[in-house]
Design brief:
alpha+beta; nine-stranded mixed beta sheet; 8 helices; about 30% strand; globular; binds pyridoxal-5'-phosphate
Length: about 350
């Protein structure tokens, strides 16, 4: 296994005192993980160093051709004060799938879990204490060759930064308003939809803007060929409960294989629900709604865990789901997953990794 060097900061930052004001993604901890890749040498110089700016050539390939991948997961503080991760191996596994698609060199998943644990140990005082708040973890890899030309790079940086983040639902599990995008698409067959790469998010901004302009919070993407089949939401996978059947679009290559999605499916199966991963059209959802059979709609993702959908707008049709209230399956999944993440209930699936 690679060596991991640790250089501690001599100027630790003031930690936020009011955890209700953490928000998301703008406060960073004292240290970060860095590792270099050079063709011929492989990954080397793994280190934890003080958090700070980096220098890059203006010609760095990531800036021009977007050869980049990332991940997102969280560290949670239990009531006893210990810190734990939720299925982190899945994130490093997915990172290697993204890397393969973006022609980025593979990482050693076991070493990365070790390095992440060391980083969190060093930063454990940054893991928030407030119920629902957590430490967001952002691993990412990008191409650094100073070269203006399209080819896979020979030099990369792998970094992990950490950001304390506030409770997603500080005022209860409020259902979100979702807008079905009919003009733009997020991913196409043979494209990069299943990879966690910057381009997928850049491409989604336009639809997101239009949704916001109409007072909707997030976009529901349809397939890139016929714009009939449901794919996923901006940063969540999507589930429908129709006549007692729990349905989520199957992974056909244009949808991100969410770890919360996978966990929700496993919980539902274990609890005896009828679960289907299959193609589902927006028309089928609208028909179920008209027939009074659309019981619940919810998104799954690391940020919100479970996000009940209260309103779904498809063209002129506005569907109000379950009276704009959270449904029983969404609530059960939220309670089970957050219970396991914050160590409030038994981890019957063996998902937690303790720091
Ligand atoms: C496009 C997209 N879909 C789905 C998800 C949910 O994935 P996960 O459950 O692994 O957070 C995310 C968030 O990471 C995402 O960015």
């Amino acid at each position: 296994m690679l060596d991991l060097k640790i250089e501690r900061t001599t100027a630790p930052k003031e930690k936020p005192t009011d955890e209700t004001k953490l928000g998301f993604g703008h406060i960073f901890t004292d240290h970060m993980f860095v590792m270099n890749y050079d063709t011929g040498m492989g990954w080397h110089d793994a280190r934890i160093v003080p958090f700070g700016n980096i220098t890059l050539s203006p010609a760095a390939m990531c800036l021009h051709y977007g050869q980049e991948i990332f991940e997102g997961l969280k560290a949670y503080r239990t009531a006893e004060g210990s810190v734990q991760l939720f299925r982190p191996q899945e994130n490093f596994k997915r990172m290697n799938v993204s890397a393969e698609r973006m022609v980025i060199p593979q990482i050693d998943e076991e070493f990365m879990l070790h390095a992440l644990k060391e980083l969190i140990k060093l930063e454990q005082d940054w893991v928030p204490h407030t119920d629902g708040a957590s430490l967001y973890i952002r691993p990412f890899i990008f191409a650094t060759d100073p070269y203006v030309g399209v080819r896979p790079a020979d030099h990369y940086l792998f970094m992990i930064i950490l950001s304390p983040s506030g409770a997603y639902y500080s005022t209860g599990l409020n259902p979100v308003k979702i807008y079905v995008e009919q003009k733009y698409v997020r991913a196409v067959r043979g494209g990069t939809g299943f990879a966690k790469t910057a381009a997928n998010y850049a491409i989604s901004l336009k639809g997101q803007d239009e949704a916001h302009a109409q007072d909707y919070e997030q976009v529901l993407w349809l397939d890139g060929v016929e714009q009939k089949y449901i794919e996923e939401v901006g940063s969540m996978n999507i589930f429908f409960v129709i006549d007692g059947e729990v349905i989520t679009p199957k992974l056909t290559g244009s949808v991100l294989p969410g770890i919360t999605r996978k966990s929700a499916l496993e919980i539902c199966k274990k609890r005896g629900y009828k679960v289907s991963e299959r193609r589902i059209t927006i028309q089928e959802v609208a028909d179920a709604y008209d027939a009074g059979k659309l019981d619940e709609v919810f998104g799954t993702g690391t940020a919100a865990v479970i996000s009940p959908v209260g309103h779904l707008k498809w063209g002129e049709k506005i569907m109000t789901i379950n009276d704009n209230k959270i449904g029983p399956i969404s609530q059960m999944l939220y309670d089970t997953m957050t219970g396991i993440q914050w160590g409030k209930i038994e981890d019957e699936f063996g998902w937690v990794v303790k720091i």
